[in-house]
């Protein structure tokens, strides 16, 4: 499959291989497997700590590792007890033993209330529908800058029109977390390509399988899962599953293999229908030989990290105008 049109052309994706597509409702995931021998990078859940939220719009993360480098996931946020819930508008590097205060974080809870218990604290990735707006607001010090976007998203789900993101992430959590069990994270998986219905909506690549393992649930449940859930509410009648007509084990294996081949071909067709992109690339930050870049095109945007032309991390997502 040709994924080069979705990644800046200077990167070589020939070392990546792709697994079998998996589907749950309107959400389809294509697993990616790349090099998994780079131990320099800490994982986002076990290796990053939310140190403090100082007032509104100031969110401090720390990297307690002695030597490991942290690549902060794009649009990472926290639901927490007795403090305002915040999310980041950008990625960043944090060296081992260092802290970083994000003064351009966005508050995702317009006023006090609706907190989760301490035992339920977890991090998320912003829902797909909010990511373009959040990326455009990076560097802007305004804690309420995403409240209007969150309000619009809540209204789409028939929820109270206020800037409380936990109305979706918490109240719909039982539905959203089903994606974690219905879509399987595979051993040594380092990334995934996401489709909603017949549209490609995201490419997520991590520097290691351990990193992607901790990023998987926030991505599949709360980023792409929210967008898939919205599409599913408009589907009036689900097509019934048709069982295989096999009479013995050999026929079952043949029909299963044929079904997988048909699904692969379907995904190829979806990708072929994706408009080719010309990206604008802007360097945001350097850390030793690492480069953090922002990429924007007509239908997709995101950030990636490269080192000497080698792609280490990428989070590229569809813009809302392309989703509709």
Provide the residue-averaged pLDDT.
85
Number of continuous helical runs: 8
Which parts are unreliable, with pLDDT below 50 for 5 consecutive residues or more? 113-120
What number of domains? Answer: 1
Proportion of residues in β-strands: 25-35%
The assigned structural class equals alpha+beta
Alpha-carbon distance between the termini? 25 Å
The overall strand count is: 18
In short:
With 324 residues, the protein is of the alpha+beta class.
How would you describe what is shown here?
There is one protein chain. The chain is an alpha+beta fold. It has one domain. Helix content is 26%, strand content 27%. The protein contains eight helices and 18 strands. The strands form four sheets. Strands 1, 2, 3, 13, 14, 15, 16, 17 and 18 form a nine-stranded antiparallel β-sheet that branches. A four-stranded antiparallel β-sheet has the order 11-8-7-12. A three-stranded antiparallel β-sheet has the order 4-5-10, with no helix packed on it. The radius of gyration is 20 Å and the shape is globular.
